């Protein structure tokens, strides 16, 4: 049975003026809307108490399992306002399916796809006025689930909290579409075979932070991880997937396994042939990437994710020095793909794949 998320109106929603001030310069992940969608799960009764309620803090017992064993998963997705004022989600079922995959890996209960989409839709509908218009701004949606059971034993929790919050968002990187530099981590890896690399769980991101800080110390916006076994194969970045454009028009990305199955990654694979590129999912060694940048066999590299959209990578930095990607400027293929994706999301290009979902 699909859960219903009925609206309990916020007693004190922000005024139009307050909201407009936020929407004029939303930043990323710092401002939140008036409501949130919630539901709870217990081993005894399953899913219950679903509603859209005023945005506000949770009261958590200090012994809540998530605070000790990090039994938590999340998603990232966006709502876009089209020129006619309508509001759309991009492939929400894909996020719902991935959320279920993550839940299985983290021993959390699965939320049915229809209930996940219902929750997101109900929140966006309640907080429609918070969906920015114009430019590349959107309403970033963050569904998440955590172990709320008060218990210090190590096993899957028998009480779980589900929630969706919404945050008006501009560009994830402060430079927008300006190329970013990437730090090649030597000491840290992100995911081992059999581990949680393919799940979107907070622990993966927590484990990336020290490497991310190292990247920042070297003037880089993201860290690039290689595989945990041979330290040879490109895995993904701290919080996004990565793509390589070759001189013979291939669009290469690391094969699935220990990486996150990005929704943007998947959309790019589908869009590539429409732009004359051959999509290829395979293992890519870091050595091949560096050599390819030096010889010109690799002409462009970009990062992709819901938050990052498609962001050009201008250089790879490591302890042995810096390797520029072509002339360091955003490449034409990167920009074309970015435009094609954004045009679909904002309703300016025909949605031949049936990706957009009207709220
Ligand atoms: C997203 O792209 O939505 C993510 O979840 C990545 C996060 C680092 C912002």
TrEMBL record:
CDD domains assigned: BCAT_beta_family
GO molecular function: L-isoleucine-2-oxoglutarate transaminase activity; L-leucine-2-oxoglutarate transaminase activity; L-valine-2-oxoglutarate transaminase activity
InterPro entries: Aminotrans_IV (IPR001544), Aminotrans_IV_CS (IPR018300), Aminotransferase-like (IPR036038), B_amino_transII (IPR005786), BCAT-like_C (IPR043132), BCAT-like_N (IPR043131), BCAT_family (IPR033939)
GO BP term (any one): isoleucine biosynthetic process
Stored PROSITE patterns: AA_TRANSFER_CLASS_4 (PS00770)
Enzyme class: transferase
The protein's required cofactors: pyridoxal 5'-phosphate
Modified residues (N6-(pyridoxal phosphate)lysine): 200
Keyword line: Amino-acid biosynthesis, Aminotransferase, Branched-chain amino acid biosynthesis, Pyridoxal phosphate, Transferase
Keyword Transmembrane helix listed: no
A matching Pfam family: Aminotran_4
Top-rank lineage group of the source organism: Bacteria
Segments traversing the membrane: none
Enzyme Commission designation: 2.6.1.42
Keyword Cell inner membrane: no
Reaction(s) catalysed by this chain's protein: L-leucine + 2-oxoglutarate = 4-methyl-2-oxopentanoate + L-glutamate; L-isoleucine + 2-oxoglutarate = (S)-3-methyl-2-oxopentanoate + L-glutamate; L-valine + 2-oxoglutarate = 3-methyl-2-oxobutanoate + L-glutamate
This protein's pathway: Amino-acid biosynthesis; L-isoleucine biosynthesis; L-isoleucine from 2-oxobutanoate: step 4/4; Amino-acid biosynthesis; L-leucine biosynthesis; L-leucine from 3-methyl-2-oxobutanoate: step 4/4; Amino-acid biosynthesis; L-valine biosynthesis; L-valine from pyruvate: step 4/4
Family statement: Belongs to the class-IV pyridoxal-phosphate-dependent aminotransferase family.
Descriptive protein name: Branched-chain-amino-acid aminotransferase
């Amino acid at each position: 049975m699909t859960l219903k998320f009925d609206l309990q109106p916020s007693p004190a929603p922000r005024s139009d003026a307050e909201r407009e001030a936020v929407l004029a310069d939303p930043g990323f992940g710092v401002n939140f809307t008036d409501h949130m969608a919630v539901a709870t799960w217990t081993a005894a009764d399953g899913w219950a108490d679903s509603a859209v309620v005023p945005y506000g803090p949770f009261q958590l017992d200090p012994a809540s399992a998530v605070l000790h064993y990090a039994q938590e998963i999340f998603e990232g997705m966006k709502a876009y306002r089209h020129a006619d004022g309508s509001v759309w989600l991009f492939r929400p079922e894909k996020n719902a399916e991935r959320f279920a995959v993550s839940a299985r890996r983290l021993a959390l209960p699965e939320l049915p796809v229809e209930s996940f989409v219902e929750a997101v839709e109900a929140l966006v509908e309640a907080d429609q006025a918070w969906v920015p218009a114009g430019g590349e701004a959107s309403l970033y949606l963050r569904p998440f689930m955590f172990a709320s059971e008060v218990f210090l034993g190590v096993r899957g929790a028998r009480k779980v909290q589900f929630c969706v919050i919404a945050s008006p968002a501009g560009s994830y990187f402060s430079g927008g579409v300006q190329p970013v530099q990437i730090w090649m981590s030597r000491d840290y890896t992100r995911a081992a075979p059999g581990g949680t690399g393919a799940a979107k769980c907070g622990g993966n991101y927590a484990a990336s932070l020290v490497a991310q800080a190292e990247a920042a110390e070297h003037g880089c916006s993201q860290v690039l991880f290689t595989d945990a076994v041979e330290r040879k194969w490109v895995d993904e970045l701290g919080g996004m997937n990565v793509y390589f454009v070759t001189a013979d028009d291939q669009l290469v990305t690391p094969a699935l396994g220990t990486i996150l199955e990005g929704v943007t990654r998947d959309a790019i694979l589908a869009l590539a042939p429409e732009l004359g590129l051959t999509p290829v999912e395979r293992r890519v060694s870091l050595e091949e990437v560096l050599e390819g940048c030096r010889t010109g066999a690799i002409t462009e590299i970009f990062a992709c994710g819901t938050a990052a959209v498609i962001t050009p990578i201008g250089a790879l930095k490591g302890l042995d020095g810096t390797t520029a990607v072509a002339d360091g400027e955003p490449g034409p293929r990167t920009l074309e793909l970015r435009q094609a994706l954004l045009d679909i999301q904002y309703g300016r290009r025909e949605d031949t794949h049936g990706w957009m979902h009207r709220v």
